[in-house]
């Protein structure tokens, strides 16, 4: 299996300018590819213990999708950089608690077999993202994290930068996320959006298209002909 690209530093050579036929599937990480709630709960518990942050995990969780510093600001946590170091160290230490959602790996390989280009777009720092992506062992051609250029979600920047990496038009891409900030980022980037019903976010207005399983997402996005051809690869 091809190792995932750990960061945006080595994107593939972009296709020729005339290439406007390729499709891209961009995916958020938490609540889309992997169930990372146990990891996040462990890390938040450590933050509570070491820094006296007296806020329940639920308060942190409702801001998921945003960059960590953005969340700390919204929660009124001071000394965010010290807290961040604790949180990142504990997240990396607890990465083994993450579990890919059922059917995700098969779905990713079906998209690859149908010649879609895959990218990850997350507000996590690359140090926390890399060990989680390594668990999937899937051929992501790019991974845009909070360590990259531009603004983080809900700005459109990481989605647009991932599409530059992949050489795909926004109109030929789909972003799969689970939080309202994912939906906003996709809308501002001009990218179609699909929400995972297995993620962590609550339904918000306007209600996005929601898929209940990786298998259903596959059927929604890939014509039956491509599915049959992909299964032969
Ligand atoms: Mg998410």
UniProtKB/TrEMBL annotation:
Q: What GO cellular-component annotations does this UniProt entry give?
A: cytosol
Q: Which UniProt keywords apply?
A: Hydrolase
Molecular function GO terms recorded: phosphoglycolate phosphatase activity
* InterPro entries named in the record: HAD-like_hydrolase_sf (IPR050155), HAD-like_sf (IPR036412), HAD-SF_hydro_IA (IPR006439), HAD_2 (IPR041492), HAD_sf (IPR023214), PGP-like_dom2 (IPR023198)
Q: Does the keyword Hydrolase apply?
A: yes
Is Isomerase found in the keyword set? no
Where is region (Disordered) located?
1-21
A Pfam short name: HAD_2
Give the record's GO biological process terms: DNA repair
From the Swiss-Prot or TrEMBL record, give the protein name: HAD superfamily hydrolase (TIGR01549 family)
Lineage, broadest ranks: Bacteria, Bacillati, Actinomycetota, Actinomycetes, Kitasatosporales
């Amino acid at each position: 299996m091809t190792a995932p690209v750990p960061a945006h530093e080595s994107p593939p050579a972009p296709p020729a300018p005339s290439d406007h036929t390729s499709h891209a599937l961009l995916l958020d990480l938490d609540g889309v590819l992997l169930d990372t709630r146990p990891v996040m709960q462990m890390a938040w518990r450590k933050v509570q213990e070491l820094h006296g942050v007296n806020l329940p995990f639920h308060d942190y969780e409702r801001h998921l999708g945003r960059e960590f510093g953005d969340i700390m600001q919204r929660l009124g946590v001071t000394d965010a950089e010290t807290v961040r170091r604790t949180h990142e160290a504990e997240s990396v230490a607890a990465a083994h608690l993450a579990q890919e959602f059922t059917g995700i790996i098969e779905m990713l390989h079906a998209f690859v077999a149908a010649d879609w280009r895959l990218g990850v777009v997350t507000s996590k720092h690359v140090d926390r993202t890399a060990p989680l992506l390594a668990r999937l062992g899937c051929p992501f051609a790019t991974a845009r994290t909070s360590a990259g250029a531009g603004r983080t979600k809900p700005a459109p920047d990481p989605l647009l930068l991932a599409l530059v990496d992949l050489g795909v038009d926004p109109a030929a891409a789909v972003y799969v996320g689970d939080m309202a900030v994912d939906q906003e980022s996709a809308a501002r980037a001009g990218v179609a959006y699909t929400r995972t019903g297995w993620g962590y976010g609550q339904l918000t207005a306007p209600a996005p298209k929601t898929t209940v399983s990786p298998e259903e997402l596959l059927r929604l996005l890939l014509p039956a002909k491509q599915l049959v051809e992909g299964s032969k690869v």
